[in-house]
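Example S7 (structure tokens).
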């Protein structure tokens, strides 16, 4: 098929040299694929290096504490990926004797592994002809074939998977899958692709009908919620602060944060001070309150925007429990908290 040959030829001349392309070991391929979910290569590459250095095998990762895995993951976001990564490593070691399943169906049973990741590992490591379909592949196929079925609909998912499966090179599925993902990432980019040098520009339906910017089609997402987060950064007379571990199934599960007061709107200094005085950690204590960031920090997540303020609470009395200020960087925290910790001068207390 012309499409397949053209794609593979382009890939042989344009592929990036990436460390996980130098191996077929399922551990390293799985690790790279989990890191690159929701993450661009340039951001994920240093994390991949850190994980390989720290956990050179699935056995090393399985033995690690979850808190250590989360700490190493810090800054990548979507922390459920890290928790699933650790849980899967333990499962592979404890239940599968350290051997990853060698086929698509078996891989699909692993926690945190969906259709795309299972297909990638199965094709690259075990030469199984299972087509990958991710954002890059959706974009390439929708533009080249002129498909306007929404990619985030059940119909779209089925249609594009079937098409990709028909196109895959059954003799060399690993190269085909990596080629189409690479093409979408570096050539058929979301914004301003250089169609003039594209090897498919003669036969691409989107290009020839001026629809490159219209494809792929995506159904409108749900309205993003606004939340108002107020973090209490306690500084005691014995140079301790309070970090709390987030429980439950919400965002940042098992990560640490400063005590949080969530309000239904942005509050003035005086209003918030009266509100904070009733908090159990401050009640009946002598304290000074100051606002660290005069402008609200807006932290954008996929489904909600967090309008954030950091309130510095200096207490005249010591804290019996808490974290020494000198150890605050040792905890796994969300990037929002991590950025504050890096910018705030704790050593001045």
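Recovered sequence:
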């Amino acid at each position: 098929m012309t499409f397949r040959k053209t794609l593979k030829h382009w890939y042989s001349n344009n592929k990036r040299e990436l460390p996980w392309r130098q191996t077929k070991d399922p551990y390293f391929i799985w690790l790279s694929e989990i890191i690159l979910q929701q993450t661009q290569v340039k951001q994920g590459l240093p994390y991949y290096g850190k994980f390989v250095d720290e956990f050179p095998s699935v056995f090393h990762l399985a033995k690690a504490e979850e808190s250590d895995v989360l700490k190493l993951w810090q800054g990548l976001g979507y922390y459920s990926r890290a928790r699933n990564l650790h849980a899967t490593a333990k499962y592979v070691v404890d239940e599968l004797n350290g051997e990853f399943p060698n086929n698509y169906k078996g891989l699909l049973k692993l926690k945190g592994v969906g259709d795309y990741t299972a297909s990638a590992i199965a094709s690259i490591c075990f030469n199984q002809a299972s087509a990958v379909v991710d954002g890059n592949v959706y974009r390439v196929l929708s533009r080249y074939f002129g498909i306007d079925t929404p990619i985030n609909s059940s119909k779209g998912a089925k249609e594009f998977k079937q098409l990709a499966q028909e196109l895959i090179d059954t003799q060399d599925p690993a190269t085909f899958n990596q080629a189409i993902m690479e093409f979408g990432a570096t050539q058929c980019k979301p914004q301003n692709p250089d169609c003039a040098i594209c090897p498919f520009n003669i036969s691409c339906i989107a290009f020839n009908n001026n629809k490159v910017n219209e494809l792929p089609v995506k159904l409108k997402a749900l309205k993003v919620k606004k939340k108002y987060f107020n973090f209490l950064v306690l500084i005691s007379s014995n140079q301790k602060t309070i970090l709390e571990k987030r429980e439950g199934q919400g965002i940042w599960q098992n990560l640490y944060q400063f005590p949080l007061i969530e309000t239904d709107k942005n509050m003035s200094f005086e209003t918030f001070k009266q509100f904070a005085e009733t908090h159990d950690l401050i009640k009946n204590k002598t304290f000074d309150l100051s606002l660290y960031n005069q402008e609200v920090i807006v932290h954008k997540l996929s489904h909600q925007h967090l309008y954030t303020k950091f309130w510095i609470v200096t207490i005249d009395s010591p804290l019996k429990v808490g974290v020494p200020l000198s150890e605050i960087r040792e905890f796994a925290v969300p990037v929002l908290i991590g950025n504050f910790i890096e910018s705030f001068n704790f050593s001045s207390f």
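Notes on this example. DSSP finds 14 helices and nine strands in the chain.
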